[in-house]
Amino acid sequence: MTRHGVTGVNVVVLRDGEEAWAASFGFADPARGRPMTREAVFRIESISKPVTAWGVMRLVEEGRVGLDDPVSDHLHSWSPPPGWGEVTVRHLLSQTGGLAIGDFTDRFPPAGPVRPLRESISRDLEMVASPGERFEYSNVGFNLLEVLVEDVTGQSFSRWMADAVLRPLGMDTATFEWTRELVPRMPVGHDLKGDPVARHVYPGRASGGLLASLDDMVRFAAASMDLPFGPEPSLLTPEARADLHRPQGEVEGIFRFVAEGYSLGHFTEPLSDGRRAVWHGGQGHGWMTHIHLVPESGDGVVILANSQRAWPLFGHILRAWSEDLGVEPVGMAIVTRASPLAWALTILLGLAAVAQGLRVILRRHRSPHVPRLVTGGVGAVLLLGVGWAAAQDYLFLFSILPGQVGGLGAAVGGLGVVLLLSALVRPGPHRTS
């Protein structure tokens, strides 16, 4: 936590479907000296998606919705655009609906006003693939499921989820509805720079709006286990839980490095001993969460942090957990390899800058025109790239290397300056004896 500048963390390990170890570390509010406690209520962020999937499966088991029903058949408060007839409930749950991710920076003060959900969906809606064609991670797709739940049940999404999933599972604190009563129990979130962030809510709840404590997430994790490790009777039938965890297709893009597939609201991966794990992570402005489960053996780990700098720490925890299970590190542990690679790259870029600088100082003859143009162009591109990255609120690289981005950026920028100077500076006069 010290190395990566992580503010506070709650962790629990499950064995045989029951809590085996739990602890709280750091601060809920360092400015006031308030320590992290187990009772703290976190923004769960994208782990909201597997919880939402449970709510949709309740409707499926009640016969009110079919997984392969066109979504448009169940919507009456929002009109989908033409060509939506092929988008099914299964597509949205499995991230194969062909929708873009949406604006994950769309945040509002809890006191409002907050952009209406349906307006937000219309604003963010973008088809980037045909339904069922490939994996495309999308918050918009899950927010459409929120509209579906409301239109089918006639209730608010928050109320339906509370009555159909959260309370029956014993998640007594968990809620999709922000209330002022939660404020005393909520830690202060901290961004990638380590600065505190203001409380906020999103227009949609299904994709990332769950608020819950460690105890709530332990109960959700336990309910996700196969028998005999899961509770009996279960809120969902064994067949429904199997559907939730069965891969629907391979993941693509950067997710390939950490998962093999995506089921209904869960990432999936095979472990090195043949067992299958299901998991999901969550990241928002000032918060980071993770849940990793092995349903067939009742093993699991839940990690909640009020810091967006926690991803490297999560990687180390998951590597240690994998070792405890006796398996090769799970996919998300790969982030622990990023730090040494980044240090090596930073050193190499620094050495390259020094070497090029010495060439400029010692050079006596003007270089040919074309190579100088190329050198200057590369230098300019590097400087522009560093400037562009520094202007961004968020880049994936910032999350996996929160403590090293500055040094890496300085090395890239330094090399860019030297390359640009080597193209512009005239060589000294050539003297003969």
Topology:
Blueprint: E1 8-15, E2 18-29, E3 34-35, E4 41-43, H1 48-61, H2 89-93, H3 117-124, H4 139-153, H5 157-166, E5 211-213, H6 214-223, H7 238-245, E6 249-250, E7 261-262, E8 267-270, E9 276-284, E10 287-294, E11 299-305, H8 311-325, H9 338-362, H10 369-390, H11 396-400, H12 405-424
Antiparallel strand pairs: 1-2, 1-11, 2-3, 4-5, 6-7, 7-8, 8-9, 9-10, 10-11
Helix pairs in contact: 1-4, 1-5, 3-4, 9-12, 10-12
Short description:
The protein has 433 residues and is of the alpha+beta class. Helix content is 36%, strand content 14%. Strands 3-2-1-11-10-9-8-7-6 form a 9-stranded antiparallel β-sheet, with helices on both faces. The protein has a two-stranded antiparallel ribbon with strand order 4-5.
Describe this structure in words.
The protein has 433 residues and is α+β, with helices and mostly antiparallel strands. The protein has two domains: 8-329, Beta-lactamase (3-Layer(aba) Sandwich); 338-424. Helices cover 36% and strands 14% of the residues. The protein contains twelve helices and eleven strands. The chain has a nine-stranded antiparallel sheet with strand order 3-2-1-11-10-9-8-7-6, with helices on both faces. A two-stranded antiparallel ribbon has the order 4-5. Helix 3 (117-124) packs antiparallel against helix 4 and helix 10 (369-390) packs antiparallel against helix 12 (405-424). It starts with 7 loop residues before the first strand and ends in a 9-residue tail after the last helix. The mean pLDDT is 90.
